[in-house]
Amino acid sequence: MSVTEILFTPLLKADPGRPLITHYDDAAGTRIELSRATVKNWAAKTANWLRDEHDVEPGDPVAVLLPAHWQTVGLLLGAWWCGARVVGASFSDAKVAVVPPGGTADADVVAVASLHPMGLGSGAPVDYADDVRVHGDDFMPWEPVAGSTPALGESTVDEVVAQARELGAALGSEPRVLSTLEWDSPSAVLEGFLAVLAAGGSLVQVSNPDAGLLAARRESEKVTRQLG
């Protein structure tokens, strides 16, 4: 099974309405909260888009060159769901790369994610948010993803899951985690995102953090752990 099926699907089945990510952008003054069910829809659309439009197969490299953001959550989970290997900026010749507005990448296909708080498109020729909308809210892999399949950087599915569970154990059971960590390396994705899934928790992710707001936010969001 894929990273998504192992770490995320059990949370979805247990309580689909529970928040998975609450995203703040302190520079823009925005707050967006997505339930597990809503994230699942984005992930399924992404998996279908990658496989059906761009022929991504298990082990194919997909460069996710985005900041920690709710759109990035759907993209990561969708990429893993169809078996893709998520890579960063140092990887050359990815099959698909998703970049922020103005970003560039060495890839067969470069799509732009607007990072708009409401998920609006960017107007780019290949636009992630607009393109995935036409795809289904459910995804069925054509074949199971093997545990030996590369999933994140140089790590396989089995290795990623084991590392996420080890890090998640330190967060406690079902934590509410506030994080200012960026997901700019495999280790940061593991610590700042996958560990939270492995612990059965939810994430309060803050972009462009205003240090003066964090204390009140920890209280209002009922945070139990903080990263970054």
TrEMBL record:
Entries under InterPro entries matching the protein: ANL_N_sf (IPR042099), Rv3268 (IPR017523)
Protein name, UniProt field: TIGR03089 family protein
Organism expressing this protein natively: Lentzea kristufekii
